[in-house]
Amino acid sequence: MNQVKNKFKYGTLLIFWPLFGLLFLYLERFRNVKDYVATYCRMDDFIPFNELFIIPYMFWFVYLAGMISYLFFRDKENFLRLMKYIIFTNTVALIIFILFPTCQNLRPSVFPRDNIFTRFIGLFYQFDTNTNVAPSLHVLDSVAVMSAAMNAKQFRSLKWKFAFVTVGFLICISTVFLKQHSIIDVFIAVPICFFADWLFYGELISRKERVQV
User: Fold this and answer.
1) What is the average pLDDT value for the chain, to the nearest integer?
2) Model confidence at 51, in pLDDT bands (50, 70, 90)?
3) Rounded to whole angstroms, how far apart are CA atoms 12 and 158?
4) 73-82: buried (b, 16+ CB within 10 Å) or exposed (e) per residue?
5) CB atoms within 10 A of CB 53
6) In whole angstroms, what is the distance from residue 23 CA to residue 21 CA?
7) Are 125 and 107 in contact (CB under 8 A)?
8) For residues 97 and 107, what is the distance between their CA atoms, to the nearest angstrom?
């Protein structure tokens, strides 16, 4: 009985996702904004478009949902920390989207190559707007998964840590190589992640250091 109650208690955090999705959909599709601030810096011009990065970009969904699902069933404490991390960072992002609407104008008008990846990206561009880009949600959530992996006893081996960091890094840089984000959007996400990491994992890291001493 207690296990059922605990699962329900932890499971209520998942309500965040439909609530977040509805508000994000409103901001993307239905909010009337006359002037978006375009994020751009000269570094963006030196980052070439590369359609192969659609693979890690789309893998973000598996990366995020997979970790949340795994921790929900195997590590309730880390699940709780991960969800609090995500709720905090994504809520901060929504507040920024509301107060400072941003967009990016970096998408190529013509793809340099014609293949299955560029065709898919063309369709994806039609579905996904170029608004509400700073900070990048892909970066926020990827770093959240990396933080959870670094602090989960199930993934304490160097091989697991290397795998999670590598995949997370590829997802983060995929956002700029697909011209979904300016590098500025990545830079804005980083300090938010650092603060969330300290907020939700700092105590845990300090506890591990005390145990080692």
Assistant:
1) 90
2) very high
3) 33
4) eebeebbbbb
5) 21
6) 6
7) yes
8) 20
Q: Mean per-residue pLDDT for 178-202?
A: 95
Model-wide pTM > 0.85: yes
- The pLDDT-based confidence of 5 (bands split at 50, 70, 90) is low
CA distance 119 to 51: 9
Q: How far apart are CA 121 and CA 135, in angstroms?
A: 21
At 15, which amino acid appears? I
- Paired tokens of 29: 């599709």
Phi-psi region at 132: left, alpha or beta (left = phi > 0; alpha = psi -120 to 50)? left
**What is the C-alpha to C-alpha distance for residues 107 and 128, in angstroms, rounded to an integer?**
12
At residue 8, the pLDDT reads 59
Quote the strand ranges of 8-149, DSSP E: 37-38, 102-103
